[in-house]
């Protein structure tokens, strides 16, 4: 059972933060490689329209769908029309009060934000290593997506349980501004941003600095401030608005 | 062009070492989960024989093969009978003097060594998160395999070029013992082992120690000593024995 335990959820979010940073550092070892993102230039037989990046993401999610990944609440797919799972997945019970986890799916915005981030962590130019670049891109956006949706769902539920009456009234009134105000804790956000910046530095301190490519801690901090924290909050609001609703028959 | 530059290759190997450690830490967040490794218990429709781990590795490599991964010298497949690439891959030239990179393929031994390592980095028991466990297993063994084959191929070539006559004589005589002695540098190996142990500690120093699961630096050091370094050397010998040979017609 995944219980509404704020300490546990906060720790899990910290762990996911380390994964995101490690993935970004991995991606930064390659150049920006613009052709990998250009539709129609994948060099993939039988695939005229998509970019190599979009194709890799599609293939990855088709495989993941077969293995049952998207039965997990915080694993939301970037693609539609994925195959059904081929695996019997038994997941632990959880405390979430939505039946369709996809009511919180921010993958479109996550994708846009990430493509905007690539030029800020990768050196300009083309090293022809498109396959490795998009492989790391996919692992990175999956880790970002997991962090955002995990936070959105479980922190959303925990906040609700902390004051059901106040949240319930705002939900019933469809009052998004009040929900946003209730969910915003500037001191917590500042602590996360500071910790992320420090972690980027620590995780790179083991690297041989003269040759291994490093990323700027401030860039990751700014990405958290501009996207990860706001999108998590947007997801919390989506969760709350849909909380307790029965699915369409 | 990937040139026989020992500094560059050594730096790349250091980078790959960080990736291996990060992947091991990711895997250690889950329990050992024995059912994920038991043949016939994958819960996967239409798949009666393989374990979930073996299936995940097979699906991953089938996807990777479509994207051209195994055209890269250091990316050697664990599975046979993979599909042909669907992608036109243009790789940089390299300095290697074998035409079939698969003459150096140590994936069987890598797989065995990794399955032996899992109980030493993961807590005993079953958390039912089999899908995540095997996903991380696959990323981890791919990173270990890349490290070993990259070292085997490029260090093999560099060592040869450092003394073509001595190496050439040992190769012509099929004298594996002499090759092994020529390739062994205890002081370099000790330096790698010390660095690996320190890096495990550094990479975990950012973690919240009371809840995030950590791995024992000594276990990773021992794995390097027992497998990664010896298998790299075994691969260097395979490379040298096959160096310059033309493929079978």
What is shown here, in short?
The structure is a homodimer of 249-residue chains. Helices cover 59% and strands 0% of the residues of chain A. The first copy, chain A, is mainly α and 249 residues long.
Shape descriptor of chain A: globular
Unreliably modeled segments of chain A: none
| Strand portion of chain A | under 5%
Number of helices of chain A: 8
What name is given to the CATH topology of chain A?
Chorismate Mutase, subunit A
Order of helix and strand elements from N to C terminus of chain A: HHHHHHHH
Q: Oligomeric state of the chains?
A: homodimer
Which protein chains make the most extensive interface, counting residues with beta carbons within 8 Å of the other chain's beta carbons?
A: A-B, 47 and 47 residues
The biggest sheet of chain A amounts to:
none
Number of separate structural domains of chain A: 1
End-to-end separation of chain A: 27 Å
Mind telling me the CATH superfamily name of chain A?
A: Chorismate mutase, AroQ class superfamily, eukaryotic
**CATH class (first level) name of chain A:** Mainly Alpha
Helix residue percentage of chain A: 55-70%
Rg of chain A from C-alpha positions? Answer: 19 Å
CATH architecture of chain A: Orthogonal Bundle
Q: Give the mean pLDDT of chain A.
A: 93
Number of extended strands of chain A: 0
Structural class per helix/strand content of chain A? mainly alpha
Structure commentary:
With 249 residues, chain A is an all-alpha fold. Chain A has a single domain (6-242), classed as Orthogonal Bundle (Chorismate Mutase, subunit A). Helix content of chain A is 59%, strand content 0%. In chain A, helix 1 packs antiparallel against helix 4, helix 2 crosses helix 4 and helix 7 crosses helix 8 (217-242). Chain A is globular, with a radius of gyration of 19 Å. The mean pLDDT of chain A is 93. At the A-B interface, helix 1, helix 2, helix 4 and helix 7 of A face helix 1, helix 2, helix 4 and helix 7 of B.
